[in-house]
């Protein structure tokens, strides 16, 4: 009797704790929006989600690196899962772009029949936003360099390239936070402020998540977890980072440049 190539997952408490954390976070945010003074529930939800993520992914790394459960069939399933996840993220951002173009292509009387709305001073697209574009595109180049170096089994180059990618991602986050601090409009400034801060803010959150993803990959490279032909964890991080790059290009061209 031949052994089947698929990994049967062991019983795990982390889906339950992650679900409980998501419920607590949703209830906490809802209460916070209504000024009910229950912010502690929101922080408990965030804490539970972070702990569940850390422990769940720790178990996945152990299954892959030490237990050897990630056969070629399992990796194929993980690839399909990552593709579906990125597709769902595309649909997520599509909603933001839909809201932006719905408001900007045919501005209503309430916003002055013009875009940007009357009273809104948009950001200069050739200032910090252009620098952020250069920084993020450069990080896409360095993560591709790291991927090719990993396939060539050049560990030192992988470490250098990943360190550069992480530093560029953190620099992007710093520039965006500084841009938010000095922005001449806020989230409460009508539809323009809402679409701008929600779309760019969620993208910034994805940059932070991607930076953490790459930091974990950098640690795993340092610990010799990847080989030249078995490194899907890094490939998933690289795919996610390229997705973040493409979304930023669309945000820059549509919201920063055309929308101004």
UniProtKB/TrEMBL annotation:
Main location: membrane
GO BP field: mitochondrial electron transport, cytochrome c to oxygen
Annotated keywords: Membrane, Mitochondrion, Translocase, Transmembrane, Transmembrane helix
Pfam family, one: COX3
Single GO term (MF): cytochrome-c oxidase activity
Top-level taxonomic group: Eukaryota
Membrane topology reported for the UniProt record: Multi-pass membrane protein
Chain ranges of the Heme-copper oxidase subunit III family profile domain: 2-260
A GO-annotated cellular component: organelle envelope
Compartments where located: Membrane
Spans through the membrane: 12-34, 40-57, 78-101, 126-146, 158-176, 196-219, 239-259
Residues making up the signal peptide according to the UniProt record: none
Subunit-structure text: Component of the cytochrome c oxidase (complex IV, CIV), a multisubunit enzyme composed of a catalytic core of 3 subunits and several supernumerary subunits. The complex exists as a monomer or a dimer and forms supercomplexes (SCs) in the inner mitochondrial membrane with ubiquinol-cytochrome c oxidoreductase (cytochrome b-c1 complex, complex III, CIII).
Role: Component of the cytochrome c oxidase, the last enzyme in the mitochondrial electron transport chain which drives oxidative phosphorylation. The respiratory chain contains 3 multisubunit complexes succinate dehydrogenase (complex II, CII), ubiquinol-cytochrome c oxidoreductase (cytochrome b-c1 complex, complex III, CIII) and cytochrome c oxidase (complex IV, CIV), that cooperate to transfer electrons derived from NADH and succinate to molecular oxygen, creating an electrochemical gradient over the inner membrane that drives transmembrane transport and the ATP synthase.
Similarity comment: family membership: Belongs to the cytochrome c oxidase subunit 3 family.
Name this polypeptide is given: Cytochrome c oxidase subunit 3
Organism the protein comes from: Erpobdella japonica
Gene: COX3
């Amino acid at each position: 009797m031949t052994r089947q190539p698929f990994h049967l997952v062991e019983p795990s408490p982390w889906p339950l704790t992650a679900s409980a954390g998501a419920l607590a976070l949703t209830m906490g945010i809802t209460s916070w929006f209504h000024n009910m003074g229950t912010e502690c529930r929101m922080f408990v939800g965030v804490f539970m989600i972070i702990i569940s993520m850390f422990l769940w992914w720790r178990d996945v790394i152990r299954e892959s690196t030490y237990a050897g459960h990630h056969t070629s069939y399992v990796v194929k399933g993980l690839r399909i899962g990552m593709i579906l996840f990125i597709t769902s993220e595309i649909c997520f951002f599509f909603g933001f772009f839909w809201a932006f173009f719905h408001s900007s292509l045919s501005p209503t009387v309430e916003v002055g029949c013009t875009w940007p709305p009357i009273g809104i001073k948009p950001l200069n697209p050739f200032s910090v936003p252009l620098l952020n574009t250069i920084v993020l595109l450069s990080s896409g180049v360095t993560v591709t360099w790291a991927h090719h170096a990993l396939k060539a089994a050049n560990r030192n180059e992988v470490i250098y390239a990943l360190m550069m990618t992480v530093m560029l991602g953190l620099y992007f986050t710093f520039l965006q936070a500084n841009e938010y601090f000095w922005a001449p409009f806020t989230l409460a400034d009508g539809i323009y402020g809402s679409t701008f801060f929600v779309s760019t803010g969620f993208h910034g959150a994805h940059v932070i998540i991607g930076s953490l993803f790459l930091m974990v990959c950098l640690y795993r490279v340092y610990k010799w977890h990847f080989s030249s032909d078995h490194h899907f964890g890094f490939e998933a991080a690289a795919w996610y980072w390229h997705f973040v790059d493409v979304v930023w290009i669309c945000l820059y061209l549509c919201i920063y440049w055309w929308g101004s």
